[in-house]
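Progress report, Aim 2. The chain analyzed during this reporting quarter is listed below.
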Amino acid sequence: MPDITRNILWSVLAAGTAFASLPASSAHADNAPADLLARGEYLATAGDCVACHTAPGGKPFAGGLKIATPMGDVVSTNITPDPDHGIGKYTEEDFEKSLRQGIRRDGSHLYPAMPYVSYSGLTDGDVKALYAWFMHGVKPVAVTPPTTSLNFPANMRVAMAAWNMLASNTPPESGDSATFDKLRRGRYLANALEHCGTCHTPRNMMLSEEQDSYLAGAPLVGWYAPNITSSKTSGIGNWSEDTLVQYLHTGHVDGLSQAAGPMGEAVEHSTSHLTDEDLHALAAYILQVPAKEDSAEHKPRESFGQPVEAADVRSGDLTRIDDLSEMSGQYIYDANCAACHGPNGAGTSDHYAPSLFHNSVTGAGRPDNLIMTILNGVDRTADGQHVHMPGFDHDSDVQRLSDNEIASVANYVMTTFGSGDHAATPEQVAKLRKDIAKTP
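Predicted structure tokens for the chain:
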């Protein structure tokens, strides 16, 4: 697909991150049972609604998060129950149409960055619980975020009617989702509430999910959501159910993987708050998804590498502060990475700084996630532990590395500790650097 076509389509998909606040008569009840509110809150957490609908430093669900696209900035809207600035005048029917059909109260179409394609699979009972909680459990916030204003053709919502006819919506589930058996509950969580396929399933020319490649991996605003099918070489077929549960609960498994970027955010705001029963249901379902192979990966990502006894590259000579010459990847690693990850790449003894070998990021068949981690850093709180790694992009407070330096250190790390030299280039880093602003 030509880049310009993909950019335009992604702009269209990115534009509709929320429900619109439109005048109407309020029709929701003045109160709701406590158990219904508790269920609605849990479902909203599982759906990770707060991620897109809360600006940095802003109040929960008040909108205002800006996402840069080639066609302009997308701004998420207020979905608190404020009657004038949020969705306080939505009836339950209005809410259901927005949530499951992507249709606003005025009849216009939402853009599918609001994952109604997945939420269409929600049961009637869960939609009712979500509505009750958003109307009675969320604090109203009297703030109207800036209006999203995109350039042509991304500003044409009417095009979404045609797109919806081609998209594969998740069929609605029936019955009480709380009573589903383990695999059915796991499928419900994966396909509807957690909408795993939104990130991990590749898309076709029209940016509709390719259902025959479900969870086979896909690019995502600079990051790469990896193959999480049951393939033992390209996916996570070697992971146990308990291992995947630990990852979803904490975002980290020693000697295996750690969550950063959008997945780190999903762990922090969503999966780390699920019950053990739901985590096991979700893990059990994902681990039986049919295997899909990836031409870029022929060996389990976590199987690469070993401790490296590298020679000390420090000469003892002082470096002048005005010496702006770029260092090699090995020197950059020694100066910026070795203090935490160790000269041999083994990380810290408590695994706070992870090992760089037996690591699914450095063992991947693509350098994208390593580059984005170097640029973005890691900032994740889950299971009561805050994990932080500084980024090294142009806003870094520790060291601002050039595109060439980041490419050099990424190639050094993957060659020394991971799956080999993937020939990352400064041009590739520059392109991924631009995507940082697009990451919620």
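Residues 347 and 353 are 5 Å apart (CA to CA). The chain has three domains: 3-142+160-170, 183-301, 303-438. These observations will guide the mutagenesis work planned for the next reporting period.
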